[in-house]
Specification:
The protein is an alpha/beta fold and 336 residues long. The chain is 24% helix and 23% strand.
Length: 336
Amino acid sequence: MSAGAIDFFVLTGFLGSGKTTLLRDVLSAETASDTAIIVNEAGEVGLDGVLLRESGDDVPMAMLSNGCVCCQVGSDLAFTIDRLIVTPRPDGLPQLARIILETSGLSMPGPVLRQLATLAEHRMRVAVIATYDLTRGLDVATFEEAAAQWAAAHRIVATKADLAPQALASAPVAIAQLNPVAEAIASADRATAVAAAFAPLTASLPLREIAPDLSAPHPRLALCLVRPLAELGFADLAGWLDNAAGRLGERLLRIKGLVKVHEAPRPLLVESVGTVFSPPRQLTAEKPPAPFIVVIARDIERAELEQVEPSGLFSFSWREPERGAETAGIRAEWVT
């Protein structure tokens, strides 16, 4: 049982991108004693869990082998998390402070986060951690699952630096193309990268100005920098966000931004993964950036977002590939 707030990390990343290796590094650290791990694999045999137990025999393991969490109706994920939190901790172990869910390489974070809504009583702080495989880079952006994983992430950590050291220096720029509001973690030192990826969520994750020359990494992905033309009423902001989510539906991958409203003395942080919105809250950090909203979506026309009601509230700056770029379909991959 835990007496304090718990950090909940959804560790996501495409097939073979280094999630399990990253998690093994977490478990080998001395700080792992306050951590619980949930591993979800697509298949009946939990191989990742076997590998992880080699690294952390004292860490509570809850194996889910019923397929991807995000595509299972009535999944036992919420029950598993609840049991981990309320069950008394073994003698000699500190209070539970961190839960890490390693999803399968084909999971999309949005539906996973939706399942956490039933656990609101535990008041967990939630963040999505995605892996960026330096050996493949943006090649897997053509897969719908990979694009959704990167877009949903609060932190994106570069993996396999030992296999592709020449790609490490350019990784922050590539990550910013995928998700300009995510914190990019790229370090040749694995211990440093792991510590940064799973650092406590006691403070707001950083917001920064968006670089003006970013381009989307794939012809079917669009990044839009939306800036309020003036201070807004909360009802107008809420209405616009709700209508944008309704119009784009499953094509909406991520919204994150900072908006000043009449009803609050400090700017509001607004955020969604897919169409799942976190409750807006006032930002406490000093000297916040100018108000903005970043929208990441796939397969959309500019007018679909620019014509969302109430209209006339924002300016829109699009980050798109050159129209002459070769268009390739976003792919889906099946495993058997």
